[in-house]
User: Which sequence fits this backbone?
């Protein structure tokens, strides 16, 4: 099985470091799939889920935006924030979504509304990723 090294880091912590066979992320122009031996690339990522495949195993994470760089020796994702689906606090994301929607409604076309819109996109990405966790069948020991 061909693999490549993937590292996902935020300013706070190293979230992931392992050899994988594919990663699918949300680039600025849509979904982006990286396989072994991908040509060098540097692109921005939008808030959204991130699927990592290692052989037959799949793992989901969510990032709130960042950069992806394909280097000859590894692929690096520098994320503003990133959580594994199991770490997502759904109530917190719902709360952030509600707050953002209220601000956008109360003060449309303001700087506060623009910040709220970014918060809304992050919360929606988290809620969508958390849905995947719910749909995933429990692992049988
Ligand atoms: P909030 O208003 O709830 O802080 P936010 O979108 O502004 O949401 P971020 O700035 O993206 O939050 O993230 C700040 C930190 O909190 C990061 O470490 C991120 O991983 C974590 N975080 C934010 N929301 C959640 C969540 N719903 N579940 C788990 N971790 C979260």
Assistant:
């Amino acid at each position: 099985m061909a693999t490549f090294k993937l590292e996902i880091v935020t300013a706070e912590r190293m979230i992931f470091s392992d050899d994988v066979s594919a990663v699918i992320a949300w680039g600025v122009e849509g979904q982006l799939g990286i396989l072994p031996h991908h040509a060098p690339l540097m692109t921005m990522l939008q808030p959204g889920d991130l699927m990592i495949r290692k052989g037959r195993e799949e793992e989901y994470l969510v990032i709130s935006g960042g950069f992806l760089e394909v280097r000859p020796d590894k692929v690096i994702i520098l994320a503003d924030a990133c959580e594994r689906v199991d770490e997502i606090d759904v109530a917190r994301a719902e709360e952030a979504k509600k707050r953002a929607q209220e601000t956008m409604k109360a003060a449309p076309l303001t700087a506060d509304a623009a910040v709220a819109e970014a918060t809304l996109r992050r919360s929606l990405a988290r809620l969508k990723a958390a849905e995947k966790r719910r749909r995933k069948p429990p692992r049988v020991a």
Remarks:
- The chain has two domains: 4-85, 88-135.
- The first helix runs from residue 90 to 106.
- Residues 12, 64, 81, 83, 87-89, 92-93, 96, 119, 122, 126 surround adenosine-5'-triphosphate (CB under 6 Å).
- The mean pLDDT is 93.
